[in-house]
């Protein structure tokens, strides 16, 4: 079963990547050093929306994130797959488009606790 889950995640990620990149003119990695500062100078309107989105995503329930972002910020191609990266601290990928710009960021999750599960 875990192999089918992995295959499903890969396929969904590929579909999200292809569909997200089709309409966007450029992509910005918000986790890159200085990316938010550059965005604040180059596009203050997008900067304000991006900051509110990042702050708000952690307060939303997972299923509500895409709808909330579309209605509040007119974001399109929202991707917030329920895949938690096994880093320390754990992270989750968020991507969305505002106008013709694609934004991507790895959000650090502070409310996720690991648990030990015995091997079968």
- Count of structural domains: 1
Largest sheet: 5 strands, mixed
Low-confidence stretches: none
Distance between the termini: 14 Å
Helical amount: 40-55%
Task: Briefly note the structural class of the backbone.
Answer: alpha+beta
Query: If you compute it from the alpha carbons, what radius of gyration comes out, rounded to the nearest whole angstrom?
Result: 16 Å
Tell the overall outline. Answer: globular
- Write the H/E string, N to C: HEHHHEEEE
Query: What is the number of beta strands?
Result: 5
Strand content: 15-25%
What is the number of helical segments per DSSP (H or I, 4+ residues)? 4
Mean pLDDT: 80
Give the key terms.
5 strands, 5-stranded mixed β-sheet, alpha+beta, 4 helices, 120 residues, 22% strand
How would you portray this structure in words?
The protein contains 4 helices and 5 strands. By secondary structure, it is α+β, with helices and mostly antiparallel strands. It has one domain. The mean pLDDT is 80.
Helix and strand topology:
Layout (H helix, E strand, L loop, with lengths): L1 H22 L2 E4 L5 H8 L1 H14 L7 H9 L2 E4 L4 E2 L5 E8 L2 E8 L12
Parallel strand pairs: 1-5
Antiparallel strand pairs: 2-4, 3-4, 4-5
Helix pairs in contact: 2-3
């Amino acid at each position: 079963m875990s192999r089918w889950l992995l295959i499903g995640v890969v396929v969904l990620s590929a579909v999200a990547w292809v569909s997200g990149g089709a309409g966007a003119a450029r992509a910005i990695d918000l986790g890159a050093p200085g990316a938010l500062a550059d965005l604040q100078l180059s596009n203050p309107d997008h900067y304000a929306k991006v900051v509110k989105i990042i702050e708000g995503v952690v307060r939303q329930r997972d299923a509500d994130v895409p709808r909330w972002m579309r209605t509040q910020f007119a974001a399109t191609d929202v991707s917030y797959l329920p895949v938690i990266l096994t880093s320390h601290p754990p992270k989750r990928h968020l991507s969305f488009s505002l106008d013709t710009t694609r934004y991507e960021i790895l959000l650090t999750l502070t409310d996720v606790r690991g648990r030990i599960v015995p091997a079968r």
